[in-house]
Each structure stands twice: as C-alpha cells, then as structure tokens.
Amino acid sequence: MGTKNCRCCNQPLIHTFVDLGISPLANSYVTKVKLSHMEPMYPLLTFVCEHCFLVQVEDFESPEHIFSDYAYFSSYSDSWLEHCRVYVERMTKRFSLSGNHQIVEIASNDGYLLQYFKEKNIPVLGIEPAANVAEIATQKGISTVVDFFGSQLAQSLREQGKQADLLLGNNVLAHVPDLNDFVAGMKLLLSDQGIITMEFPHLMRLLESNQFDTIYHEHFSYFSLSAVNRLFENHNLVIFDVEQLPTHGGSIRIFGRHSHDESKAVSTKVADLLEEEVVAGMTKLQTYKEFYGKVVRLKRQLVRFLIDIKERGETVVGYGAPAKGNTLLNYCGIDQDYLDYTVDRSPYKQGLYLPGSRIPIYAPDQLKETKPDYVLILPWNLKEEIMVQTDFIREWGGKWIVPIPEVTVLG
C-alpha cells in the first residue's frame, strides 16, 4: 500500500531522496521470548516531491499498528522537560494565557508538557493515541482523549464545546500519514483568535548535518518551512512567526493562525527563513539528490571505526535506545559483533532488545559494571546531557563516540 502521490499536494512521487535498505519499525522493541521469532522488515525508502519539496517515506504500516502501544515516553529526558517548561512560561507570557483559555496538545504523550500549564491552573486537554502512554498522563490528572487526531475528532470535540486557544504539537507533524486531514482538523479545533504552535525537526538541518538516522517508518514526512507553509496556506491558515530551536539536531517552531485573524502580524522572520532555505537549495531537486553520497560515506566511516576498536581488543557499548539509533544501526549493519549492549534510562525499554540488531538494553548502571572503553551516544541530540550523566566513565579512561554529523570521539 505504498504511497504513490505526495501527502501534501497529491502530485506523483518519482524522485528518490535516500534509500536506507530494509529495516524493522524503529520503535518495535523485541522481548526475550520473541528473540527466536521473525521480525517484519520494510523498505526504508524516501522520496522528495518536485512540486512542494516535501520529503516522505513510503508507508507500509498503519498508524494504529505503530502508535497504539508505544515505547516512547517523553519524560525521561531532563533537557526536553526543561525545554517544555520554558515553552510554557514563554507562551503564557506572550499570549497572556490564563484560566479562561483552553490549551490542547496533539500527541500529548505522558503529560510531559501539559503538566506545566496545569500547574498554572490553565485548562488542558491532551490527545494521545497510545493508551499505555496516555494512562501515565491521566495518573497526573491531565484529561486525555485516547484517539488519533484528525478532522473527525476535531469536529467531535467542537460539538462538545471544546475549542483551542492554544493548539500545540511537538514532533507530531512528521508522524501523520494524512497531512491534509490533520491540518483541516487543526483549522476546525482552533478558536477564532487561537494560536497553533508546531515544533518539528527542520529538513534543512537534516541535510546540512547528515541526520539521516532521523528517517524511520514512524516519521512519514520531513519538513522545510516552505513545505509546511504551503500546507497551511491550502487550509486558510497563516504562519505568522517562526523560531529556530536547537532540539533534535535543529528544529523549527511555527506559529499559525486563521487567515481571517489579523490581530497577529506576520513576522519578518518567516520571509527571512524562507529565503534562507532558497539560498540553501531547498527548492532545487539537485540538493536532495546529492545527499545520499554523504550518507554512504558516514556508514563506511562508522563501520570502519568500530571494526578498528574491536580488532584492538577494546569494548564499545551504546547509550540510549532511540528510534534514530535503530535506523543508524540497521542501515550500517551494526549488531552485537560491534556493540556489546546499550543502556537506557527508561524502564519501559530495559530488558528488551533493539529491533533488527537484537542488541540488549540494560539500565545505565551496567556501564559501571563492565567499564567499556567507548560509549556510542545514539541520541546524539542529547549528547551534552548524556555526557554529564555518564561522566563517571572518565574514571577508567572511557570515551564517548558521537556518530552524527560525522564520527567524533570525545573524552
């Protein structure tokens, strides 16, 4: 059931962006009892639309299969929680939010962000399709609808008298297979003078910094500002401001409003970033076609580096079990021959095995027990936080490896 037409503009997809071979679903962690079972594998093939320059993967699995029981809990990164706390402070101040306003978050996960609005006594509603994750939010007292967001759910909420004065979504837009229905839903749910904020990794940074590991099946689309601007315009929504963020290797936060709402002037930052994308070649097919060569070079560099470590009789393990790490490991063919194990702070991942590579996941204390020579940081976007948490590896001369944008040793 692969995608044949662009998710944004419905034009035929004929240009390959990058082909990462075959891979399991990046968040489909393997239990011990299933180690002897086969894993479903799918082509990880991405295309770029020559009309709107949206980068997108072929879809082989339904969102219901991918997200209904999800292994990712947002609250296990201290730096991400701080990012969200600061966001809440800034939005509350900038838009004078109070108990008279309704905050709605799409893909609210375990309540990692809405908890900070709740502390301010501002009404919140979460929308989260993964029941196991939503349950944690509910335990925090955050009202959560367990469902996929789209125009049907938006209409239902609207009929119940719910409209969003601030409608937000962090790293959800990439996970949406039907973009037009999703944005139509946001249009429906947004109050007359309401504000949309969406954060997502910036495709321009992906290209600049060789962040191919952020491509996986759960991420259906990869956005430039120009692509998302076109998508919003198609639904009579206006992007009136944009911020560039350091999160996830370089993200952008867009601010949207109804086209009829002229109370919020369009910032010059929108035109400035659109121009920056033009200068960077984001509206030229050739830019996208040149990317694959960088990906192949990094694969060879990383594998060669790990082989050298092993042949010297030294040990290397991983830190983290993120989806991006699974793309990296599976594309590069890295298994336990190269990486003895990995560790993760999330108890929901400990005791499981990485999909495809079958590398075991332990608690971080395992590092102190085995004293590895090298720790490969798989969630490289959190390298500063992780290096602080694992500073003790210096005691035995341990070093960190950061794989993206190129293999770098820190110690």
TrEMBL record:
SUPFAM superfamilies for the chain: S-adenosyl-L-methionine-dependent methyltransferases (SSF53335)
GO function term, MF aspect, one: methyltransferase activity
Biological process terms in GO annotation: methylation
Keyword set includes Hydrolase: no
All residue ranges annotated as the C-methyltransferase domain in the record: 246-405
Keyword line: Methyltransferase, Transferase
Sequence ranges assigned to domain Methyltransferase putative zinc binding in this UniProt record: 6-67
InterPro entries linked to this entry: Methyltransf_Zn-bd_dom_put, Methyltransf_Zn-bd_dom_put_sf, MeTrfase_14, SAM-dependent_MTases_sf
PANTHER family linked to this entry: BLL5978 PROTEIN, TRANS-ACONITATE 2-METHYLTRANSFERASE-RELATED
Protein name as it appears in the record: Class I SAM-dependent methyltransferase
Organismal lineage: Bacteria, Bacillati, Bacillota, Bacilli, Bacillales
